[in-house]
Amino acid sequence: MRILVVGGKGTIGQAVVEKLHEHELIIAGRTSGDVQVDLTSVSSIEMMFKKVGYVDAIVNASGTAKIQLVEKMTPEDNLVAVQSKLLGQINLALIGQKYLHRGGSITLTTGIMKDDPIPGGASAAMANGGVSAFVKSAAIDFTQGIRINCVSPNVLIESYEKHKDSFKGFVPVPAERVAMAYVKSIEGKQTGQEYQVY
Ligand SMILES: NC(=O)c1ccc[n+]([C@@H]2O[C@H](COP(=O)([O-])OP(=O)(O)OC[C@H]3O[C@@H](n4cnc5c(N)ncnc54)[C@H](OP(=O)(O)O)[C@@H]3O)[C@@H](O)[C@H]2O)c1
Q: Which CDD domains has this protein been placed in (predicted)?
């Protein structure tokens, strides 16, 4: 398979890439990888697909949000997650579907915060919930065998040191286990799923 992995040089992305080594991989990032893209820009996504061409699978393992307590959160703070995690991923799917071979797949990334709240996580949770709902609903619209799923990871062992103050009492999961959910989405047959790796 020819697979585009946006965020393929990141913590989750690298673990996913490792599991997909038998495939032809194209890694995308803002500055890293084989091709550059900024998911917060529609024209940047369009330009990336013009360069990359047709693929069998589109994976996203990127997205940012401002961690901020709601009582202090401004609309501008919230816009970070809207533009990146929410619209960035959905625009990747909307534009990318035209570059997918018949039977291809789209795999997006959400996260545990929407199901198990952490302080300051409301904006990320909003985006995660939006992506999850989009995936469930979009799956029934595709008529050319295209599948769409998302992976909702717990905090990773590999990221825990950086985030441990926010994730008190959480049991972090290995990146390798999270990566297997992406493999299930890409190489399996399911659609409309959210794989929760909690
Ligand atoms: N790590 C965790 O514990 C964890 C848990 C649950 C959910 N998540 C979610 O999973 C996603 C990936 O997390 P991660 O920890 O692997 O992140 P990471 O290590 O920071 O890596 C992010 C990757 O995405 C690329 N990227 C960032 N912004 C981008 C943009 N606007 N357009 C295109 N590419 C962009 C980066 O490449 P450049 O530097 O070249 O831009 C990098 O390769 C995030 O949405 C995160 O919230 C992570």
A: Lin1944_like_SDR_c
